Amino acid sequence: MKRSLLIIVLAYAAVFLSATGVVVNRLSTSFEIARLNTCDFEVNVSNQTAQVKVTESFTNTSPWRIMPRLYFPLPRGANPNTLRWNYGDQWHQAYIGGVPQGAPGGPTQFPDNFIVYIQLMPVIFDAPDSLESGASIIFELSYVQQLNSNFGSFTLNLKNDYQLMQAAPLARQSLNLNLQSIEQITDFDILDINAQTSFTGNTASATFNLLNQPANNNYRCIWQLQTGNPTSWGLSTMLDEAPDGQAPGFFLYNLTEESIPADSTYALRINLVIDVSGSMTFEDRLTNAKQAAIYVINNLGPNDYFNIILFDHVTHPLWSALRPNTFPNRSQAISFINSYTITSLNGTNLYAGLQQALHQFTPPAQGIKNCVMLLSDGQPNVGVTDTYEIVTRVNSHVATYHIEPYIFCFGVGSEVNYQLLNALAQHHRGLAIFLESAEITTVIPSFYDVMRNPTLQSAIITIGPAGSALEIFPDPVPTIYGGMQYRILGRYTVPQNLAISVDGYHEGDFVSFNYDYQLSAADSTSLGFIPKLWASAKIDKLLIDYYQLSPGSPQAVALRQQIIDLSIDYQVVCIFTSFVIDPPVENDEELNSPLCPIKQLKNYPNPFNPSTTISFEVSSDLYEDAELRIYNVRGQLVYIKKIRLNGKGLYEVRWDGKDLQDRAVSSGLYIYTLRVGDYILHSKMTLSK
Fold first, then answer.
1. Can you tell me the distance from the alpha carbon of 567 to that of 249, in angstroms, rounded to the nearest whole number?
2. Which stretches in the chain have pLDDT values below 50?
3. In 3D, which of 48, 158, 202, 72 has the Cα closest to residue 533?
4. CATH class of the 598-687 domain in this structure
5. CATH superfamily of the domain spanning 267-451
6. CATH no. of 18-225
7. 0.90 exceeded by the pTM?
8. What is the pLDDT of residues 590-625, one digit of tens each?
């Protein structure tokens, strides 16, 4: 049977939700925002790559001056290209520097509506301009984003609904979208608004303008491509000079193959591990997860064993061990799923749920596969929360007990720990798929249908002639499933014809798929996103390696610096970098001077309960206040303390795990910053009760 395409972005996975930013006054400890006046989206989509530019203007309507801090909720998988701001009719350019986000100042508490709107990991940028009462400022953010397909159907959700932040009307809202596709477009529309749309053959367009109305509708852009025989295609561009001075050519190649008929059927020992923490109430996530889980249960094989493990701050297993696929067991499982409700906003103990699933496996006999299907929408914040620690513990358990699991991870929304889910899947022969809530009910069942019969296992990509392609990603190559599209990214020095071979095994038999692609000799400005996608893919790979190392080890420090250098060279923001006002300094002496007068030491103990001591060393004769701020993973300030410095020496400050209202905080990961003058240091710690 011919299957439509389900694109799994293996080098760089994305959730397709972009939004309008919020400007907050960082001078005030209370929550004050500027008024949004205009918001304009310019979108160009070329062969599943969206290039988005959002321009928005804000006015300070308060009676006093403010210092604007922009929060922009970037969708998961989007790479910011540029950030500019205009104040006083003059444009200024921001740069990407090796400083993590999280500048001090601003509100001590954020309202729930802001947290829901802004998500967990927005772009944060402090404009240096003081905005007087009645004055306006313009921000322009551009980013590139790879789009996934849900069986030939694409959705790009541009979040223009600003009701959570502002009821007042905007002077102007606009959308201008142009779409080009190698495959024929069979349907195209913008939902919820009265946009002018058209499509014919391989192009489509949409325009929308609205004046003096509230921003209360998103732009849900949907289109359908003609499906049938799988197609494979590539794009390439050759720069005059690469940002890092290495090979100047960059290519992207998408490949798809049909399923190979199976001669045998594996029996599954499968654990469905589902997040039921408080955030799963958003966007019907739990409702959709239930529907997907029931589909899996109703489509188990006759010799399968299964179990359901729900988790929030603790685990809620259906049974203490796997049970056979019988009608009574299926009925009990479906009843268990349908009857579960979330009654409180509990935390996310992802490791506990995963650990319980793994403990129920034994070494698989011939013809049996141990599988975990893990679905989560958040960051672990209860129990074991550190990515390195979780990955290390899982790897150790798998090696010790020889259980050989396949771990398939489904991350929902933009708050998920991408590095953790990707590392778990990559280390244990699975896939990490990132999707929106509405896609759960189609993507997970569709994947389950092909999960039993991988087209290629132990896959290897070979590209000839030898040396023609460099630094190819994904690395390692995941298991290949029929009907899914896989994206290869790489570099080259000479434009020539590539012979691409993807080799592996299907049920023990060697199988090879072969493709030809001619590399371009031209520097195409319209394909300038490909080097950024390649850099992001390499950063993702390096981050997986980084989280296997002890964070303070020399290897981890060196790898972190490599990631920062790559992020700055290609101007793509990562977890270790952010937008800054000044361009990166090229001169090493200038970069290292003046020396930072403080050295942050580790807090101890860590993890801790109920208190920990944070220590730092001052190497200069400073006689001023240092400021310690502690934030939870939602970005909320929970504690602040001033420390008086009296010259050089070692300083310590104790935190008793309580917030500004002297209330005990919950278990989880906390970020703390230490500021002295213009110098800021960051670190993290875990409260484990």
1. 18
2. 1-17, 585-594
3. 48
4. mainly beta
5. von Willebrand factor, type A domain (3.40.50.410)
6. 2.60.40.3680
7. no
8. 333 345 577 766 788 888 889 999 988 888 888 888
